[in-house]
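job 3f2a | input accepted
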Amino acid sequence: MTDKNAPQTRDEGGGERQRVVLRGLFINVVLATGQLVVGVFGRSAALVADGFHTLSDLLSDTLVLAAAHFGAQAADEDHPYGHARIETAGTFGLSLVLVGAGVGIALHAAAALSAPGHLARPDFLALAMALAAIGIKEGLFRYMRRAGSRLQSELLHANAWHYRTDVFSSIVVAVGVAGSMMGVRDLDSVAAIGVAILIVRMGAMLGWQAMRELVDTGLEAEKLERIRRVILSIDGVRTLHLLRTRRAGGRAFVDVHILVDGTISVSEGHQISEMVRVALMRHVSNIADVVVHIDSEDDEHAATNARLPLRAEILKRLDHYFAGIEAARAIDSVVLHYLCGRIAVELHLSLDLAPTAADARVLQEQFAQAAARDPQIASVEVCFR
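job 3f2a | predicted structure (385 res):
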């Protein structure tokens, strides 16, 4: 049986998302081809610019396809965090292409404006293509938005709103073409420059987001606050610190230190950390994995325990300290608590060794006094069972 709360190494909806995006990509290929061909033969620089803008949608669709494809691949030895950063690197490269294309279109249109005698008047076919583009892009927006809601995909939602911005650029083109046809000859080139600015802006935004991800910029403040609330809602978590996040593709990775009662068992501490991981992946969208570090004290401010010896050394010392105590040979187990830069020792003995409360107090005092000379041992407590 599959654990729904396990880290998502594969994207279960990736195949369906790929089919949705492929349909949009096919429509954009047809639309871009139509815009470029009609723009050239219909003598509309704005329509040609919008055709290149539509081509930028193909790049966006390709990125979404890459997210669905690579996100569906499990992490491997060479890519322990998955393959989503391949998409990020591709995004940055494509952003440079978009900016270059936008600048080129703007320069060409500006050159046409500087030589008004060479401005051509678009024909009715160019206007019809511009109006058709508005309807097609609005239809793509509605289709992608419904698919995003059905598949609960923020990636598809983002792509849908990208299509909606394209609707407005196509409206600008239609106005420019219509104005040129009515005698305002330079309006088509002005519209081309407007569309070029949109292309450059889109490229710059994609590049900026990709660069932020590549340098491990954390999640936004609102999402961090939601993560804090979810963690603190888990029973057993006293507080948290050293919360760190980063993105890879459309997914986020979280690691955090949580403070729990220093006297609980290792297994209980682990269970609390598991509940934190499960809750975050269940209640905060797009979290791919969570690493939880259990702290028995606030190690951001408390004394460090790094210089304290481990169990083998402490048991060796205790054997030496307790050599003169007969009951020491009957110790069942020793529990060590590393707190505030010192060690609290917990000895477990059989109740048969202390049939009365007075006997228990005597043994407690003997063990405590024997270890009192060790500056790294904070206390010794004897527990009978």
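job 3f2a | The beta strands are 239-248, 251-259, 287-295, 333-339, 342-349, 377-384.
job 3f2a | closed
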